[in-house]
Amino acid sequence: MTPAADRIAADWIAADWGTSNLRAWAISDAGAVLAQADSDRGMGRLTPADYEPALLELIGGWLAPACTTPVLVCGMAGARQGWTEAAYRPVPCPPLGLPLTAAPTADPRLVVSIVPGLSQVRPSADVMRGEETQIAGALARHPGFDGVVCLPGTHSKWAEVSAGEVVSFRSFMTGELFDLLATQSVLRHGLAGDGWNDDAFDGAVAEAMARPEALAARLFTLRAEGLLAGLSPDRARARLSGLLIGAELAAARPWWLGRDVLLVGAGPLAALYARALAPLGVTPRTLPAEGAALAGLAQARALSKGPR
Amino acid sequence: MTPAADRIAADWIAADWGTSNLRAWAISDAGAVLAQADSDRGMGRLTPADYEPALLELIGGWLAPACTTPVLVCGMAGARQGWTEAAYRPVPCPPLGLPLTAAPTADPRLVVSIVPGLSQVRPSADVMRGEETQIAGALARHPGFDGVVCLPGTHSKWAEVSAGEVVSFRSFMTGELFDLLATQSVLRHGLAGDGWNDDAFDGAVAEAMARPEALAARLFTLRAEGLLAGLSPDRARARLSGLLIGAELAAARPWWLGRDVLLVGAGPLAALYARALAPLGVTPRTLPAEGAALAGLAQARALSKGPR
User: What is the pTM of this model?
Assistant: First the structure.
């Protein structure tokens, strides 16, 4: 709605709509990114009726008055508690596929399509929404990749990819556990600030991998060491992160041991996973999550034009 | 302050002052419980200046006008963020010992003594406050007990007791993890109500003990099974509890394997630990936490009269 935005003529719009944030890109005919916009109106704070206004507020300036602009959406907007539910596709299957789910809209300038997530029944029940699009984007950037895609986050995912399909995957609540423990638990007293200590992180990863079953006890030592030994907040924060990531890596051993790993994630967290994997002899290729999501949404756009 | 309370002449007063609650007992010369009172004014919501008024509100009616009544306090009131800090005593040592710490009071009818907690530096940093009094009470009820005392709770404790001393102990954040995950995490969507299912609990304990390192992944399956397979809130709640208690038992194996176990705890939670231990061939003796705390405070009272 700024004058600059008014001059944009998007061929289509890509949107990654997560629990906490919405990020959108205006894309040209030729596939170039014309503009990008962010909002904190994530799925977690919206009712179904809020989605269209939240989207228009962010990207209204990219819409030509007399045209219909397609919007491709991935992420939690497709959850049961989201805009409209986009049914899961069961693995094994390619990361993206039809049908896309149309979201109800009143503004004639919009046609919104939501990408389906993936589900798995065996060997363990699991779901993803949003990561499937990042995996598709990662495959577009690394054609023919055969191996494991690791996507760190609130609910980290490890996905086995072969012959262009997601064969199976596993989620870990690592990121959510870190946030809850760091901000809501008794450990919060010893974690003030945003400090960090690499040595403490490395040591905690090694400890957790050696005895991953002791997690609930090791967590309490952070409190005790703070009281008895003056454990600094920087070291405590890094140890908490290392204990949780180390426990994840111990459980995910079959996913990374001797495998080709592609790490898709945002800067600091992805860097921690790479740091934790290095002593295990794993040197993953890395890809920023944002680029992967955008490349995946471009694939969804191509799919949406195809067989219809 | 009711007429009934006015007629009580307590020789001394016992108080278990935890993070969430305060429980007090009026005790006669002969050691009989004359009255009991409870308050939700736990340490978590009090500043140091709030403690004396909170105590007087609860037990003022038990105080004779012209006398000084000793009050023996155990629990988090002795923490650094509590009424006044009662320094930890390092293990190995008897569960109770001097010095007690005098809390500052203005009312001449009160003399308040706080029981010290226990600390451990090796093999892992650890602390307890309140459980040491329950352990002392358990030893009073089971003289000569040699073995392991298990105290389930927000921060469950396993303590090795030999020749009347606490030799070492280990804390697990099991109870706090359950509360955070059940009420604050993505799992809360699938855990509505207070329902329960014993089979789901038993299965989850066995799963967690078989592969304790997979905890963060198994936790997420509760969400996925809710979405994909209609996992009921009753089963989900019992599975969450079983996964966490099972992981604790896996890590605590050296504490219970082939050992004489004494379980000190409140009803339903202690019953779950007993249920989880049964298939492992462990049949603990059990003792209610409240009785153990009161018996321990009576020991602290005797100590306070002794060597001074």
Answer: 0.92
